[in-house]
Amino acid sequence: MTTSTxxxxxxxxGRPSTPDSHGFATRPYDLVKxxxxxxxxxxxxTVGLAAAFxxxxxKAITMRDWANAAPNDVxxxxxxxxxxxxxxxxFGPPYNTAADGAALGPLKLQxxxxxxxxxxxxxxxxxxxxAGVTDNSAxxxxxxxxxxxxxxxxxxxxxDYSDALAQAPDGNPDSVATGDYGPVPVIAAGxxxxxxxxxxxxxxxxxxxxxxxxxxxxxxxxADGAYLEDQARARNLGGDQWGMMNxxxxxxxxxxxxxxxxxxxxxxxxxxENADALVWGxxxxxxxxxxxxxxxxxxxxxxxxxxxxxxIWRDYYRDHPRR
Amino acid sequence: xxxxxxxxxxxxxxxxxxxxxxERISRIVPPGQALPDRQPAYMSSWIYVFGVLTLAALIVVxxxxxxxxxxxxxxxxxxxxxxxxxxxxxxxxxLFFAFMVVHLWGKFWMAAWRxxxxxxxxxxxxxxxxxxxxxxxxxLSQANFASQWISTQAKDGLNSVGxxxxxxxxxxxxxxxxxxxxxxxxxxxxxxxxxILVRRHGIVPPIDADEETAS
Lengths: 323, 215
Known about the structure:
- The structure holds 2 protein chains of 2 kinds.
- Chain A has helices spanning 3-13, 31-53, 63-69, 71-83, 109-113, 121-131, 137-148, 151-167, 184-197, 200-205, 216-224, 227-234, 258-263, 275-291, 302-305, 309-312, 314-319, and one strand at residues 26-28.
- Chain A is mainly alpha-helical.
- In chain A, helix 4 (71-83) runs antiparallel to helix 8 and helix 7 packs across helix 9 (184-197).
- Chain B has 2 domains: 47-110; 113-204, no CATH class.
- In chain B, helix 2 runs antiparallel to helix 4.
- Chains A and B meet through strand 1, helix 2, helix 5, helix 11 and helix 12 of A and strand 1, helix 2, helix 4, helix 5 and helix 6 of B.
């Protein structure tokens, strides 16, 4: 930087410009030694913390776990997928066109991104996995009856059965009021049986692909039920429980997510159906602000107004009192 | 081979592409400032330690992650050694973020963007964001209950702004590759750039220290 450039910048800013650090008095310092000592300290600290506190590792919930622990929820979820009333069925992009999804004012980013992970909840999460079951003639007949019915009839059956399950004590299929539910009760019961056998994960993730690395269908199905959320809330991981920065067990989790998590706890975000887009929009704006602090008048002057720097450089200011 | 005329003066302006690149690289950091054995006398605060601590923690994070990668995704679930290495990875990440946040706040209160250092600040902010993304994909790659819950929740936020259409948090294979290859690569480049910029411009002098006080 030339002196004339410095002078122009100083004039624009209205105060003396920041001089080059290389022009100040120096003292000997061993940077490499500092780094090596820091590396040793951090390594020892890490080993100590790991030995003392270990790390959390709660096993993933399997479909069999779900079927054993909450069979009625599995049946209700299957009926909901057939009725098109689950979260995934009505999600919109990137899974389907059932809804436009969230929007940031006029910016319909979710819709504009398009359906890149196409999913028919009834077909992909329930009917296709069940199509592989060959030793259950009642189920085979029920699936045939479902396929031969028109769309309105299917929806009517599945919706009525979902409503009846919701009215039954504990959602127990055995206690459902008598009604015309078509093949839906048999399909839902067959779905529960498949989950109990432990074969549902494979049917969801590996159909047509030996290497099933994508768990989108399994996770969407699991999230469509109530069991996963119940388990998470019991561990204080719910969205309104600061769950996005919490971790299973007594661990720090992701405290660096505190601000993102904070917005979900307060109105209008905590009560908005569009909270996800609003919080993301706000956080993107704040992040941009953080990156551009050096150029934002007022914000960049805060360190001058609140003189924490007088503590940091107290030795320097003691030796160089203000004129 | 021709004889070398040692009396010939050096060429003032490099003509080959190689020489030009070499000459440009040599000017990125002032002579002697890439790894100096002296530092400005005004650097007398513990706050300066946190930048180096962040880098040290990053090395422990990468090293423990490399060991985890040797065993693969399921190793740490079934091996006590693997679980310990996972614990090293977790706690080094916690320390990394703790040091980095103190470093960031320290630089804010120093107004460390002064003196043509805005890009240094901005690369630091980008490194912070990149670290959050890398840690997030790590949580998604754990293949346990936490991964199930975090991925199914995070999809809502990411999908709401269209990101989920291309960055599928419920695809652990995709997330693992982001976690162990793409994001560390980008983060590594940004951190190197950040450190080079720090060395290029030097440590920011105290606020209101002017030319007359510089000696």
